[in-house]
Amino acid sequence: MDATTVLAEMTGSIASVGYGLAAIGPAIGVGIVVGKTIEGVARQPELAGRLQVLMFIGIAFTEALAFIGIATGFIFGA
């Protein structure tokens, strides 16, 4: 094995670890969004429908971060 092969293998491993770390942020974000929505519904049950819609929009934006993380892994990992 030469140094180039070892470096390529390390880069692939680092990209996998990087995406794993990038997935932690959206997971925490979704937990916070859902938790705050449940808290809001508990305080004002009549707004449950509107809060649910806003929750799904917040989850979609938060999950976009995970997609950016996996795309970055493909871009810089290759």
Automatic annotation (TrEMBL):
InterPro entries xrefs: ATP_synth_csu_bac/chlpt, ATP_synth_F0_csu, ATP_synth_F0_csu_DDCD_BS, ATP_synth_F0_csu_sf, ATPase_proteolipid_c-like_dom, F/V-ATP_Csub_sf
Organism domain of life: Bacteria
Membrane spanning residue stretches: 12-34, 54-76
Site (Reversibly protonated during proton transport): 63
SUPFAM superfamilies tied to this protein: F1F0 ATP synthase subunit C (SSF81333)
Pfam families per record: ATP-synt_C
Keywords: ATP synthesis, Cell membrane, CF(0), Hydrogen ion transport, Ion transport, Lipid-binding, Membrane, Transmembrane, Transmembrane helix, Transport
Recorded topology in the membrane: Multi-pass membrane protein
Compartments, record wording: Cell membrane; Membrane
Sequence ranges assigned to domain V-ATPase proteolipid subunit C-like in this UniProt record: 15-76
Described function: F(1)F(0) ATP synthase produces ATP from ADP in the presence of a proton or sodium gradient. F-type ATPases consist of two structural domains, F(1) containing the extramembraneous catalytic core and F(0) containing the membrane proton channel, linked together by a central stalk and a peripheral stalk. During catalysis, ATP synthesis in the catalytic domain of F(1) is coupled via a rotary mechanism of the central stalk subunits to proton translocation.
PANTHER family assigned: ATP SYNTHASE LIPID-BINDING PROTEIN, MITOCHONDRIAL (PTHR10031), ATPASE PROTEIN 9 (PTHR10031:SF0)
HAMAP family xref list: ATP_synth_c_bact
Family: Belongs to the ATPase C chain family.
Record's protein name: ATP synthase subunit c
